[in-house]
Automatic annotation (TrEMBL):
CDD domains: RsmI
Keyword Transcription appears in the UniProt entry: no
Any Pfam family the entry gives: TP_methylase
Top-level taxonomy: Eukaryota, Viridiplantae, Streptophyta, Embryophyta, Tracheophyta
Name assigned to this protein: Uncharacterized protein LOC105142749 isoform X1
């Protein structure tokens, strides 16, 4: 019986053979770059082992990252914005892995979090923290390294950097300094949620995280409620109930919405219904994980003329938060099918002439 084993030649590789039969190298009629090992026609014993040991894992080329790398050529200098997984570590492109491995330094929002991703793919590029609390101090240091010709990669904890994450200001500085900014496309919670939402995808507005300042937050929601495009928000779990209360007041309980939570992870959840149903469904629930909430755009069939009591309630709430009467009328008029002149007359009748002090939302 003859047995043939083909072992590919690898750099700095030691091949150790342990067997219960004798081996010999054949005449050099084999493919370039390969070693062919065959056995003689000697009695074959059941206990045969072929052991290949390597000097170190780092010396073995990665078949995914390094395949045909010679055809791609070296990376040019500049700032690379690399999209990283929003949950599942498999959601990363081959190009992203190559760039991460080839960079001089990786700017990371949380080095401990990003370290898990790099360890998973055996990438040893140095990490440097870069987040909203230190980005102003890091900017000049990073610019200096870029001007010296280094390849700098920026990643966030999840998704595409610069989109509701640190990085936008650094990209602007690089553009001003004529330093190349190269996007490496990857996962993005906005697009992932929208594609699976079942809502209109032709036009949409990405709002992101709302302001912590009450009047500013309500002003943004009022503008969104009046748009015909799908509206997309990022909502922290501890703010979810507050968001549903405020948005249902302006969008209406009957407006359809989609809540996407823990996307690409084990407990991924898509909930679909109306804002009114969402308030009831999640009233006493403490959800975990940041959520992407999508609300359908305004259509003619959804336009309802609010009652006088509803208008008074909205006007009173805005005035109690520090808005002047004229500003409150303007904000309510933007989100309701009522003329501003009619609203102003109602406001004067209900609240009287208010002093036109500076609006604290400005």
């Amino acid at each position: 019986m003859k047995m043939m084993v083909v072992v590919r030649r690898l750099p700095s590789t030691t091949i150790t053979l342990t067997s219960a039969f004798s081996c010999r190298f054949t005449s050099p009629k084999f493919f370039p770059g390969q070693i062919i090992i065959s056995s003689k026609s000697t009695p074959c014993y059941p206990r045969i082992s072929l052991l290949a040991t390597f000097c170190s894992a780092s010396q073995v080329p990665d078949p995914i990252i390094e395949q045909d790398s010679s055809k791609r050529g070296p990376l040019k200098r500049g700032l690379y914005l690399v999209g990283t997984p929003i949950g599942n570590l498999e959601d990363i492109t081959l190009r992203a892995l190559r760039v991460l491995k080839s960079a001089d330094v990786i700017l990371s929002e949380d080095t401990r979090h990003s370290g898990k991703l790099l360890h998973h793919y055996n990438i040893r590029t140095p990490l440097l923290s870069y987040h909203k609390f230190n980005e102003s101090q890091r900017e000049q240091q990073v610019l200096r390294r870029l001007k010296e010709g280094e390849i700098v990669v920026l990643i966030s904890d999840a998704g595409t950097p610069g989109i509701s994450d640190p990085g936008a200001e650094l990209a602007k500085l690089c553009v001003d300094e004529n330093i190349p900014v190269i996007p490496i496309p990857g996962p993005c919670a906005v697009v992932a949620a929208l594609s699976a939402s079942g809502l209109d995808t032709d036009e949409f507005t990405f709002v992101g995280f709302l302001s912590k300042h009450g009047p500013s937050r309500r002003e943004r929601l009022t503008a969104s409620a009046n748009e015909a495009r799908t509206q997309i928000f990022y909502v922290p779990p501890h703010k979810f109930s507050q968001f549903l209360e405020e948005s249902s007041l302006l969008f209406g309980d009957s407006r359809r919405c989609v809540m996407a939570r823990e996307m690409t992870k084990i407990h991924e959840e898509f909930w679909r219904g109306t804002l009114g149903e969402a308030k009831v469904r999640f009233l006493n629930q403490q959800l975990k994980g940041e959520m992407t909430l999508l609300i359908e755009g305004r259509t003619n069939c959804l336009v309802e003329t609010p009652s006088e009591d509803q208008l008074e309630h909205e006007l009173g709430e805005l005035i109690s938060r520090g808005h002047t009467l004229s500003t409150a009328v303007k904000l309510v008029a933007e989100g309701a099918s009522v003329k501003r002149k009619t609203l102003y007359s109602l406001a004067l009748k209900k609240f009287g002439k208010q002093p036109e002090a500076d609006d604290n939302s400005n």
